[in-house]
Amino acid sequence: MTKKKKSIEILNILKQLYPNATCSLNYETPLQLLVATILSAQCTDERVNKVTPALFKRFPTAESFAQGDRTEIETLIHSTGFYRNKAKNIHLACQKIVTEFNGNVPQTMKELLTLAGVARKTANVVLAHAFGIIEGVTVDTHVKRLSNRLGLTTKSNPIHIEQDLMKLLPQPEWENFSIALIYHGRAVCNARKPHCEECALNHLCKYYQKSTKS
C-alpha cells in the first residue's frame, strides 16, 4: 500500500470514528477564534474555554484589546500558562488588526502570519474554521505525534510535517484530517501510554507494528 492510499484509509476510518469532529475551542467571531487559538499554545482547549468567556466579555473587539491594559489581559488569561507572552501577542496582534486591517481579522495566510503570536498552526485554524478557507494542515502536538507513529512522516518540524501531509491528502480534507487526528490523540493514541490494542488504526500503524515485533 502506498503512503497516499494509507493516508486516505486512515482518513476514512477517522471520519467513521469521529463524524462530528470539529474545533473544540468556543468562539463566536474570527477574532475570538484567533485569541483562543493563541491561548491554546501549551494549554488544553478545555482550560482555554474556561478563561475566554470573561476575557471576551471584557474585551469584545480588536479595538478594546488594542486599547486595553496588558496587565488586565494577563490576569484574565493567567491560568493558560505563559500568560505574559500570550497577553503581549494578543495586545500587539489586535493593535495591528486595528491599524492595518480596519479592525477585522485578515483572511489570508500571508497577512495572518504578520500578526504577533501567529504561526501556521494558528493561521490554519482561523482560516479553516472562521472563514472556510483550507490553506494547510494544522499541526499541533497530537498531529505531530500521530503522523509520526502512523508512519506518514519522519519529520519533527511542524512545517515539514505539514508539507508531508499536504502531499498525501486531498486539499478539502486537510483540516478534517487534522481535527480527527487530534480527537484520536486525546481518546486513544495518548503520548505516554497509547491504547494500541483497541485502536482502529493499529493495522496501519508503524508504531504498533514495530512494538508487536519487539
Q: Which geometry do the CA atoms define?
A: elongated
* DSSP strand count: 0
| Contiguous runs where pLDDT drops below 50 for at least 5 residues | none
SS summary, helix count: 12
Which secondary-structure class do the elements indicate? mainly alpha
Fold topology:
Blueprint lengths: L2 H15 L12 H10 L5 H14 L3 H6 L2 H8 L5 H18 L8 H4 L7 H12 L9 H9 L8 H11 L5 H14 L18 H8 L1
Care to describe what's here?
By secondary structure, this protein is an all-alpha fold. Helices cover 60% and strands 0% of the residues. The two termini are 23 Å apart.
Notable traits:
214 residues; mainly alpha; 12 helices
Quick summary of this structure?
With 214 residues, the protein is mostly helical.
